[in-house]
């Protein structure tokens, strides 16, 4: 009797590789000042966007696909006042291969991305990461900004090909999973202030006051804040006068609010509120400036000290 053994002769089947979709790892930008959000790209990532595969049996043929379709009910991360921070999603950390929201599935099987991300040949489950980068120009209030993305994963591949190109043990699936993206915006300011120069004079009585001076601040949209000026490096302990120093000699002076005679200080009512600005009073604008006027003078009720260059350092602080 002759027995004919055939049909599977020469068939090579790779080890079975399984893919599945599970819970994602949230992507968090962390705590970022509002000015940095507006002016500088912020980056973050999630190393788990839901789809994981054991890659030892993945061989990419013409019909293979690992597609992600990303959608959301919003156009970016939304904050407590309704402001939105936009961002772009990328397939790699080099900010290449952007993934458009709502567009047909982005295929990680193309452009060698699965190999680049280390999925091909991995003996243990490997997750597909996503990379995110903010879009500059967002003028937003402080608070927590959040968006929930829906990621629809669709995949298909053959662990092995039989005689006649027939797929053996195809692995395929389709499942969606949510991904949370967050960024916390902190109150922040940019400050523009020139040094105060009294010039030179032979005697105390010859110094003229410095007038029409300004400090400009651009602070977080919607923020109420106060501005303080420290007492300098060597203030008089009694009477609170600021003093410039040259060697061991002192020259008393002070800084006053607006064009008046009320001393501008660093505590309590000596500070200035954002609502007290001469230009654009009120809460912070985020863009544009709020301007505070001040004047400064050297006290004339002191003896003229020895000649020299007198210097002091005053710290400006903003409190929210």
Describe this structure in words.
The strands form seven sheets. This protein has a five-stranded mixed sheet with strand order 3-17-14-6-11. It has a five-stranded antiparallel sheet with strand order 18-19-24-22-21, with no helix packed on it. The protein contains two helices and 25 strands. It is 3% helix and 40% strand. The model is unreliable at 1-17 (pLDDT under 50). It has two domains: 15-186, Immunoglobulin-like, CATH 2.60.40; 189-319, Fimbrial-type adhesion domain (Immunoglobulin-like, Sandwich). It has helices at residues 34-39, 113-116; strands spanning 12-13, 19-21, 27-33, 43-46, 51-53, 65-71, 77-78, 84-85, 87-90, 98-99, 106-107, 126-127, 130-134, 143-157, 160-161, 167-168, 171-186, 189-193, 210-219, 226-229, 242-246, 249-257, 272-273, 290-298, 316-319. A hairpin with a 5-residue loop joins strand 7 and strand 8. Residues 1-17 form the signal peptide. Pfam families: SCPU. InterPro entries: Spore_coat_component (IPR053167), Spore_coat_U/FanG (IPR007893). This is Spore coat U domain-containing protein.
| Global outline | elongated
Gyration radius over CA: 33 Å
Approximately how much beta-strand content do the residues carry?
35-45%
The CATH class of the largest domain: Mainly Beta
> How many domains make up the coordinates?
2
Number of helices: 2
H-E string: EEEHEEEEEEEEHEEEEEEEEEEEEEE
Strand count, sense and barrel status of the largest sheet are: 5 strands, mixed
Mean pLDDT: 90
Percent in helix: under 10%
Give the N-to-C terminal Cα separation. Answer: 96 Å
Query: Spans with pLDDT under 50 lasting ≥5 residues?
Result: 1-17
CATH topology of the largest domain: Immunoglobulin-like
SS class = mainly beta
Number of strands: 25
Question: Could you say what the CATH architecture of the largest domain is?
Answer: Sandwich
Strand order of the largest sheet: 3-17-14-6-11
